[in-house]
Write a structure and sequence with these properties.
The structure holds three protein chains of three kinds. By secondary structure, chain A is an alpha/beta fold. Chain A contains 14 helices and 13 strands. The chains are: A alpha/beta, B mainly alpha, C alpha/beta. Chains in contact: A-B, A-C, B-C.
Chain lengths: 336, 354, 328
């Protein structure tokens, strides 16, 4: 049994302008100790997925369908009391902007201690020791001195380390990192990613890494999910996704990023603009921008097809290729 | 090699794998209908029921205060029992709502139509309803014009201070701080009483006499004291707008300060200005009301809601409604304007918009 | 013809830009955003400028366009030193800027047509309304916008389209030189490619020269001919784009290049990252001598005493390091 099983999750935001279907039926698994990357652009629904798991959706957001099973326990519909026991304790989250995730009016120490006392049986003194231990773990130098300082006295990279320390203080099973390094400089990003890697190996927790940066995914993740406009385009191991993309969106993304090979040549961008989530079309959400779109794509969303045991993609192109080379049976042959 | 089966028994038509045309793709997506910031805001405002109801109340009150005095059979100053040469007919005085005095009852029996006194009459035989209506008109007008004065002065000072910055800003803001720290009710009363003495003589014989020295002194008081919050607001807006990238972009094309203020800064302040003014009006009305209540407001016989309330103090036991009615009207106006101003802010405040 | 290409269009010499920051009631401290930077840009080339927070690259771009008055140093445009008001006015008709944030660089109260036409209005370039309209439509077609977009407002468009509007605005005065200040950083990955291609096309079509400021090293490599690396107000290396990536000489450049996460799992896993300890110091408290010495694995005492000279160590390759020969 996987640590986290998400089946057909649907989350919508009910706004003045209408229902925004942020997540539109996604399913995936996360095993113990694995690093899963969720890649997508703005509007893809990757952050909303994470917030749905943690049940920290903003006011107008609601899970409208599907199931999320954590360690066998169903989270959709769980009471607030049950969620409180899980949040910060067994599933933790760190956010993109460490400047706004920390309360500027409390010292780092008091915020760390608060998190620890809330979720474990430690008293204040034990929590203090644990907090210092955590700061050492995330390579913050002079931890005792730092405990008394305020967030504004820290740099961006330091603050993100403190966030990681807070998130890991209770030794969660899953750490969700929502664009943790997007706001950081490249060299600081390298440090933080290095830190997360080593902590993951040391503590054995699973990580869900949400990002739009394919480089970060390539470096950190064992498995990858590519999302677009609330649906999963394809999912599989990192090698499969990068070297053998089977969805037109992923292929387009790989072609459009500048690499060492593209210097001096034209990039191949994906045409058009991201979809308006209030105005979702009937068929595949990517079809309006897809060079290879077929008539069936306009009318119907593709279902997820297994490419191999490590890779699944929801693209009609694979069905077309499958029929052409005989690996997919079209119902008619069975009737004969 | 086992063939994979397509689940759900989807009927796959081979034709459907032909490439889609660009028209078909374009048809899938359409741009949302164009809408300006203003239209969006109005839509949002109308969805806010409280604000919409408040707006309707304000419109009704304002329209009645403008129209009614012209069509009403009674006038605000006419003491109904008094006619030249005849002794005072006291039967018109102190009538209760919808009550008729002796003389009026006689007229009705004689077949004349007598318009009822909806709120009765006051101690001088004046129809109270129309006095309330006229008083509302005065209160609204004073509130409105005082707010305009505050707006103009505040906007000038605030934008100069915000845009120029440096020493000028420093000096102006210290003046603002000083004015802020003065106890405004006390200052208002002091200024009003002093001006009452001096202005009264100054404007005798001029056109301003009709408005009354008290109201003019009220405007002066507002002009001197109440512009500070508007100026701080505008200054704050200008300070933050100054740093916007589109201002920098305009500078990079060589635009001068005047162009930038006119084209970029002021238009983006307008929603703030409107909201702030909308919230300033009830403030002004309330100030005028309590000044009139204290006798420092409008000159008799011109009524204002505050002076009517003040006059009603005398008969508070027997004619309590004479105090309650103007109090309710003031409260209604101030409440509606405040709620509407809040609604405006919620609908138009750029910070709350996506 | 080739001689024309070799004379620099923009020449920056010993540029310094210090800002006074209030650190006490009446005391101010200079923030050395740009501290003695010299470089030149040839006509038709793209010079990429990279660095992390506090390095001063944005300040360099803005100072070249005289949005900030230089504290010291010389800016020479097409042979003419920019000093007087006339010089600056001339500069505004020849150079323009594209900004980073497509959401705040367009006035929300103006229509697309007014936004793009603003430089035309400021300089009085179009005599009649028709002329102005035609010019605006021409600019819009350069960047791939429809004429029906002209009367809409900026907030109705996506980030990528807004950036196109910003680019069209920068082309209004028919500039020769454009400073691009992180123009694609705020855009989605799939849109970045569209806008980068557009920059390339416009450069070919209109013969533009770019100063391309960015922090995304892969993007900068793609579009630039030469690249300059800055750190805490100083320029530490300048060379051909491929040279900087394949053979960086300065320790900071080396660390920077190795820190970039490459979108290729096998390469990424095998990549030996050069770890840098500590955080980037604040520009208010820049270390003495070479500013990178606090994080440099090769730092010696000499590095604290004096700032290394920015000198040419091989053809077209400039480095500011005391220990270049020893390290490489």
């Amino acid at each position: 049994m996987s640590l986290l099983e998400v089946k057909d999750l649907r989350t919508s935001f009910f706004t003045d302008a209408g229902e925004v279907k942020a997540v539109n039926g996604i399913s995936f698994f996360l095993d113990h100790g694995k690093v899963l990357g969720i890649v997508g652009e703005s509007g893809s629904g990757k952050s909303v997925t994470a917030y749905s798991i943690m049940q920290i959706l903003a006011g107008t957001g609601k899970i409208v369908g599907g199931s999320i099973k954590f360690d066998g326990k169903e989270l959709v519909g769980a009471s607030e009391k049950e969620m409180k026991a899980i949040r910060g304790n067994r599933i933790s989250i760190i956010f993109q902007d460490p400047m706004t995730s920390l309360n500027p009016t409390y010292t780092i120490g008091s915020q760390l201690i608060e998190a620890i006392v809330l979720h474990t049986d430690r008293n204040k003194k034990q929590a203090y020791d644990r907090a210092v231990e955590m700061l050492k773990l995330v390579n913050v130098n002079e931890p005792e001195k730092r405990m008394k300082q305020y967030p504004f006295e820290f740099s961006g990279g330091m603050r993100q380390r403190v966030m990681i320390a807070m998130a890991l203080a209770c030794e969660p099973d899953i750490l969700i990192a929502d664009e943790p390094t997007t706001a950081l400089d490249v060299t600081i990003q390298a440090q933080i990613l290095e830190l997360m890697s080593s902590l993951q190996k040391k503590l054995g927790m699973a990580i869900i890494m949400i990002t739009h940066d394919l480089g970060v995914v390539a470096q950190m993740c064992d498995e990858v999910i590519v999302m677009y406009a609330g649906s999963i385009c394809e999912q599989g191991t990192a090698d499969e996704i990068f070297y053998n993309p089977k969805h037109e969106y992923t292929k387009g993304l790989m072609r459009s990023i500048p690499t060492t090979a593209t210097a001096g040549k034209k990039l191949q961008p994906i045409a058009g603009t991201p979809i308006d989530l209030l105005n979702m079309p009937k068929g595949c959400p990517f079809a309006p921008r897809c060079d290879a779109a077929m008539k069936i794509c306009i009318n119907q969303c593709a279902y997820p097809l297994d490419i191999n045991e490590n890779h699944r993609a929801a693209c009609w192109m694979n069905v077309k290729d499958g029929i052409a080379d005989g690996t997919i049976a079209t119902g008619e042959e069975e009737e004969q | 090699m086992a063939k994979k089966k397509i689940p759900f028994n989807i009927q796959i038509d081979v034709d459907s794998f032909l490439p889609a045309s660009s028209e078909e793709k374009e048809y899938m997506v359409q741009m949302r209908p164009s809408s300006t910031f203003f239209r969006d805001g109005v839509k949002r405002l109308l969805k806010n029921k409280v604000a919409t109801v408040s707006l309707i109340i304000i419109i009704i009150i304002t329209l009645s205060s403008i129209i009614l005095p012209s069509v009403w059979p009674y006038s605000y100053e006419r003491q109904l029992g008094v006619s030249l040469g005849k002794p005072v007919d006291a039967s018109y005085n102190n009538l209760r709502p919808f009550e008729y005095g002796e003389t009026e009852k006689a007229k009705i029996e004689a077949g004349e139509k007598v318009f009822p006194h909806i709120f009765g009459t006051d101690a001088q035989g004046r129809d109270y309803f129309i006095r309330i209506v006229y008083g509302t008109r005065i209160s609204l007008a004073v509130g409105f014009f005082a707010s305009i004065i505050v707006l103009i002065i505040g906007m000038l000072v605030g934008s100069i201070s915000g845009y120029i910055g440096g020493k000028v800003d420093l000096v102006i803001m210290r003046i603002v701080d000083i004015i802020y720290s003065l106890p405004d009710m006390l200052m208002v009363i002091l200024l009003a009483s002093v001006l009452k003495q001096t202005l009264g003589s100054a404007i005798e014989g001029t056109a301003l006499e009709k408005i009354g020295s008290n109201i003019i002194s009220l405007f002066i008081v507002f002009g001197l004291l109440y512009w500070v919050s508007m100026s701080r607001l505008i200054r704050g807006q200008i300070l933050s707008l100054r740093e916007q990238e589109y201002v920098l972009a305009a500078k990079s094309t060589g635009a001068k300060s005047g162009w930038i203020i006119k084209k970029h800064l002021i238009p983006n302040c307008i929603s703030v200005i409107i909201i702030s003014t909308a919230l300033q009006i009830p403030n002004a009305i309330f100030t005028e009301s309590y000044l009139s209540f204290l006798g420092l407001g409008v000159n008799a016989p011109m009524p204002s809601l505050g002076s009517l309330a003040s006059d009603a103090l005398n008969g508070i036991n027997s004619y309590s409604y004479r105090l309650i009615i103007p109090a309710i009207v003031i409260s209604l106006i101030v409440l509606s304007l405040n709620l509407f101003g809040d609604g405006l802010r919620d609908a138009f405040d750029p910070k709350l918009n996506g | 013809m080739s001689e024309e290409k070799n004379t620099p269009l923009v020449e920056v010499s010993h540029l310094k830009e210090y800002f006074d920051i209030n650190v006490g009631l009446f005391r101010t401290k200079p923030l050395k955003a740009v501290d003695d930077v010299s470089f030149s840009i040839k006509k038709g080339e793209t010079l990429g400028l990279v660095g992390e927070s506090g390095c001063g690259k944005t300040t360099v771009g803005r100072t070249i366009l005289h949005l900030y008055k230089p504290t010291a140093g010389k800016i020479v445009y097409d042979g003419r030193e920019i000093v007087s008001k006339d010089d600056i006015a001339m500069l505004h008709t020849k150079a323009a800027m594209v900004f980073q944030d497509p959401y705040s660089s367009l006035n929300p109260r103006m229509t697309v047509s007014d936004i793009i036409g603003e430089p035309l209005d400021v300089h009085g370039m179009c005599k009649t309304k028709e002329e102005r309209r035609d010019r605006i439509l021409e600019l819009m077609s350069h960047v791939g916008l429809n004429s029906e977009h002209a009367s809409r407002y900026a907030h109705e468009f996506s980030g990528g389209q807004r950036q196109r509007i910003g680019i069209a605005r920068s082309l209004a005065v028919n500039p020769e030189f454009i400073v691009c200040d992180e123009p694609v950083s705020a855009l989605d990955v799939s849109i970045q490619a569209q806008v980068i291609n557009m920059f390339d096309e416009l450069q070919d079509k209109l013969g533009l020269t770019y100063l391309f400021i960015a922090h995304d090293l892969l993007v900068v490599r793609h579009i630039s001919d030469r690249i300059a690396v800055m750190y805490l107000g100083k320029m530490v290396e300048l060379a051909e784009a491929n040279e900087i990536y394949d053979h960086p000489l300065h320790p900071y450049s080396k660390a920077l290049m190795s820190a970039v996460p490459l979108p290729d799992p096998q390469v990424a896993r095998a990549n030996q990252r050069i770890p840098l300890t500590g955080d980037i110091p604040s520009p208010l408290n820049a270390p003495s001598g070479c500013p990178f010495r606090t994080r440099c694995p090769y730092a010696t005492e000499a590095c604290a005493e004096s700032m290394p000279e920015f000198k040419e160590v091989s053809s077209g390759h400039f480095v500011a390091c005391h220990r270049t020969e020893e390290i490489n």
